[in-house]
Amino acid sequence: MGKGSSGVSDSVQQGELANATALTKIAQQQANNAQQLYGASFPGFQKAEDFYSALSSGDPYAISRAIAPAAQQIDKASDQAKANIMRTGPSGGEKNLALEQVEANRGAQIGSTASSGYTGSFNALAQLAGQGVGESISSAGTGISGYNASTSTFGQIGQQQIQAQQLQQEQKGNTLGAFSSLGSAGLGAWGMALGA
Fold this sequence. Notes:
mainly alpha
């Protein structure tokens, strides 16, 4: 537990080194986590982007394909309503009117699904892009923070070691200077003794 020449004990330096190494490992884990999250979420993002891109294309066939599952549900509900009217409705004009209303509602619902899908697709694409960018920035930021912290600690340890070496060199220089002064003084005294 001796102190180095810089005044920082070896155990403190070892602790700082261990902390910096741990921070580096955390940063590496965060980078791995970010990659796994990206791999897990990318297919969903891609599917959503493909869906909203088809809607935003304005192509009637692409929009029809994109809303086909919803249109099938509307068709199924309309067919059930028509079957119910046929079973329970009174004969005559009222039944015919009710059947026409079901067909009109079917068309209106499918048309509304298509038009709201088209107009809402741009906002949905913007939200997807923002969410993906936000998650990417967050993961990268966490990793970078860990790397910065560990690099800073490694730099401090290195600076402490440089300062310790400089202090040792200064001490050696002072010691050599003292010996040199003693040697000069000794030679001067010896020279005086010879001259006498």
